[in-house]
Write a structure and sequence with these properties.
alpha/beta, Propionyl-CoA synthetase, binds coenzyme A, five-stranded parallel β-sheet, 628 residues, binds adenosine monophosphate, seven-stranded mixed β-sheet, 2 domains, GMP Synthetase, Chain A, domain 3, globular, Rossmann fold
Length: 628
């Protein structure tokens, strides 16, 4: 482990030297003379006087160095029967033109642009066009409903929203425009313009004076040049679920992000310029931002944008078809995708129909990698299966197997070791390090490495309160786990009310807010329970107001529909039980962790702080009733 240990040691003892070296792989309009500004602790800033443009580094830099004809992007869309490729030169030109269109609509450096698009090349083009202008994009995942979009529009206050007439999910055409219109109706902030990509599957009605067809917007636009920005300027805001209904606007800066992602491609993902990297995720999530859009392009690799599912588009061989057709070297997805494939094709017979000789690695992240899925994937694909652990907040892996730096042995159940730059600790409730083998809270000693969030959008206080106040001097990850004697980390799950459904991060608090708004509901709890396909699924429990008579089946259907309508289909809440009471501590806190333990079939001790043990006894049979 010498190469890894040496790099990790240096990154912690001398981060200035370590990350200063890493800046050299990129173009800077003004190279940073200082690497780390510690003067406003705990608000650390990387490369404080550096100036660069992220889009230049992702596109123009490669064209300028003679790689303009190399493939930058492969769009593979089984749901529309399309495969389209873009060279670096073509993609640069499309991005420059769309940046010109945004400029014509008044978008300037620092302005926000909300992007609400399905998995089409225009999503990536819109993001890079914002980066080109020094504008700040905020992509909202298509599975979120109008209200969630409205909340994000009100927080980011975009000048322009870029969207499409529809997405295509499981063979259904899902119109996006009515959701966008409803969101703008609900939001207090009104964007000046909306640019709408009209897809052939469905035409959206445009609001005169506000909305423009994408084709019309680019028709007369001059290509825009890259605007140099401060390394510390925001590149994007990505909203993620916290423990309340109010999402957190994770901010990503330009300089630290480019340096960290560029470093990660060679050192963690072992991917070189010209190789084909496929992150089968969605641009609405952090994995999509980092490893569909920015990192592969910063590295000069070819990225695959896949508008489809692991199963059903058309079958459980879809991933193998894409790998063989495009000669993918590195596949990155969430374990749930593999569980979906395994469910349909348990012995992996479809794999034999395709030539997978190009594939060197499988990286999995986004949720805990269960040892069974790890073993199944490794045996069937005969490539190393590499778990990596990270969060929207960090933007790139905290713990991983650094394949390019030094391939380490893998251990089932562990994402391997802390990545250089991250000083990971496991602590007890008093903040003291616990010995190997003992569970605790996983924290990261400050400063976080480049690429991690410098703050939350417009809310430094919430940033400190959410992440830095529990263990001063450390960032609270919200995950629990332990180290083993060899320094391998085991991440066991969230210690808060965030849940992970099919690799999608969701807040049980947000769902509780929706259930509590029903006129019949006095109080409620939503917990995440184990699910063999999605990892976790939410389950709701409601107590009715005194004197209210409601048919449980009708009420449940109403509550499920409300969550779908308010948060979106992605919330996947399907089961709500009406119960006489919820178990609480004497101070009135609902015992969600105890409920979760019982629902997951664990022998959960009854907490000594419980107010009325009889309530838990009554609930026990409901909790252990399996999810349909
Ligand atoms: N736009 C609109 N709706 C969307 C959507 C989008 N971009 N993405 C998902 N939805 C909808 C789905 O259609 C589904 O709706 P339904 O309840 O009407 O069927 C609902 O949201 C739940 O979607 P999902 O959680 O994806 O479940 P699924 O049963 O459709 O598919 C998997 C399950 C495992 C196949 C799927 O989650 C998957 O491919 N996961 C891969 C992992 C991944 O991408 N993780 C992201 C982070 S790395
Ligand atoms: P997100 O912000 O959507 O990327 O979700 C981050 C959360 O997903 C983390 O805090 C973890 O709880 C979980 N997670 C992500 N990757 C892993 C992993 N490899 N192992 C265990 N949990 C993971």
């Amino acid at each position: 482990m010498n190469g890894y240990r040496q790099a990790h040691g240096q990154s912690i003892s001398d981060p200035e030297e370590f990350w200063g070296q890493a800046t050299k792989g990129l173009d800077w309009s003004r190279p940073p003379s200082r690497v780390l500004d510690r003067s406003r602790e705990p608000f650390f800033r990387w490369f404080p006087d550096g100036e660069l443009n992220t889009c230049h580094n992702a596109l123009d830099r490669h064209v300028d160095s003679g790689a303009g004809d190399r493939t930058a992007l492969i769009y593979d869309s089984p749901v529309t029967g399309t495969v389209r490729t873009y060279t670096y030169r073509q993609l640069r030109d499309e991005v420059a033109r769309f940046a010109g269109a945004l400029k014509n609509l008044g978008v300037q450096r620092g302005d926000r642009v909300v992007v609400y698009l399905p998995m089409v090349p225009e999503a990536l083009i819109a993001m890079l066009a914002c980066a080109r202008l020094g504008a700040v994009h905020s992509v909202v995942f298509g599975g979120f409903a109008a209200h969630e979009l409205a909340v994000r529009i009100d927080d980011a206050k975009p000048t322009v929203v870029v969207s499409a007439s529809c997405g295509i999910e499981a063979g259904r055409v899902l119109p996006y425009k009515p959701l966008l219109d409803a969101a703008i109706e609900e939001s207090a902030h009104k964007p000046r313009h909306c640019v709408i990509l009209q897809r052939p599957q469905c035409t959206a009605e445009l609001v005169s004076g506000r909305d423009l067809d994408w084709a019309e917007a680019i028709a007369g636009a001059e290509p825009a040049a890259c605007v140099p920005v401060a390394a510390t300027d925001p590149l994007y805001i990505l909203y993620t679920s916290g423990t309340t209904g109010r999402p957190k606007g994770v901010v990503r800066d330009n300089g630290g992000h480019a340096v960290a992602l560029h470093w990660s491609m060679g050192n963690i993902f072992d991917t070189r310029p010209g190789e084909v990297f496929w992150a089968a995720s969605d641009v609405g999530w952090v994995v999509g931002h980092s490893y569909i859009v920015y990192a592969p392009l910063l590295a000069g690799a070819t990225t695959v944008l896949y508008e489809g599912k692991p199963v059903g588009t058309p079958d459980a061989g879809a991933f193998w078809r894409v790998v063989s057709q495009h000669r993918v070297t590195t596949l990155f997805t969430a374990p749930t995708a593999f569980r979906a494939i395994k469910k349909e094709d348990p012995s992996g017979t479809l794999i034999a129909s395709y030539d997978l000789s190009s594939l060197r690695h499988l990286f999995l992240a986004g949720e805990r990698l269960d040892p069974e899925t790890y073993a199944w994937a490794g045996e069937r694909l005969e490539v190393p299966v590499l778990d990596n652990w990270w969060q929207t907040e960090t933007g790139w892996p905290i713990a991983a197997n650094p394949r390019g730096l030094e391939p380490l042995p893998t251990k089932p159940g562990s994402p391997s070791v802390p990545v250089p730059g991250y000083d990971v600790r496991v602590v007890d409730s008093a903040g003291n390090d616990v010995p190997p083998g003992t569970d605790g809270s996983i924290v990261i000693r400050l400063p976080l490495p480049p690429g991690c969030l410098p703050t939350l959008w417009g809310d430094d206080d919430r940033f400190v309160a959410s992440y830095l106040s529990a263990f001063p001097g450390n960032y609270l990850t919200g995950d629990g786990g332990r180290f083993d004697e060899d320094g391998y980390l085991y991440v066991m799950g969230r210690t808060d009310d965030v849940i992970n459904v099919a690799g999608h991060r969701l807040s049980t608090g947000a769902m509780e807010e929706v259930l509590a708004a029903h006129p019949a509901v006095a109080e409620c709890a939503v917990i995440g329970v184990a699910d063999t396909l999605k990892g976790q699924v939410p389950r709701g429990f409601v107590v009715l107001k005194a004197g209210v008579e409601a048919d449980p089946a009708t009420l449940t259907a109403e509550l499920v529909a409300m969550v779908r309508q308010r948060i979106g289909a992605v919330a996947a809440l399907r089961q709500v039980d009406v119960v006489p009471a919820l178990p609480k501590t004497r101070s009135g806190k609902i015992l969600r962790r105890t409920m979760r333990g019982i629902a997951d079939g664990r022998d959960e001790p009854v907490p000594s702080t419980i107010d009325d043990p009889a309530v838990l006894d009554t609930l026990r049979p409901v909790l252990i009733r399996s999810t349909p």
